[in-house]
Write a structure and sequence with these properties.
The protein has about 110 residues and is mainly alpha-helical. The chain has a domain of about 50 residues. The protein contains four helices and two strands. Strands 1-2 form a two-stranded antiparallel sheet.
């Protein structure tokens, strides 16, 4: 029992002997941030029709077109014509000979 009390006294003495925590040093002022460089302006859209507009014009034209004609005109190797028509509110029609046409947008 006395050994336990001695250990407790030793522990208490060790706690008291520890120096108090030093106050946190004041934070040094950070240098002001420099202004960011301005981003270059976006390139203007080239004049003319977009690829989607070309596809729509071809589908609404009087001449029937094939998927190959459209892919060649817009320089896309693969094109989802049905998705373009759906997005624009048009209904795609395919004739028996494989030519495509579409109803006018709503």
């Amino acid at each position: 029992m006395q050994a336990a009390k001695a250990d407790d006294k030793a522990r208490d003495a060790a706690k008291a002997a520890k120096p108090a925590k030093a106050a946190k040093a004041e934070k040094q002022a950070k240098p002001a941030k420099t202004a960011k460089a301005a981003k270059p302006a976006k390139k203007a859209k080239p004049e003319g029709k977009s690829k989607v507009e070309i596809v729509i014009a071809m589908l609404l034209g009087k001449k029937p077109v094939t998927r190959a004609d459209i892919a060649e005109a817009v320089a896309w190797p693969s094109i989802n014509i049905k998705a373009i028509c759906t997005r624009k509110g048009m209904k795609l029609k395919q004739a028996a000979d494989g030519t495509l046409s579409a109803s006018a947008p709503k």
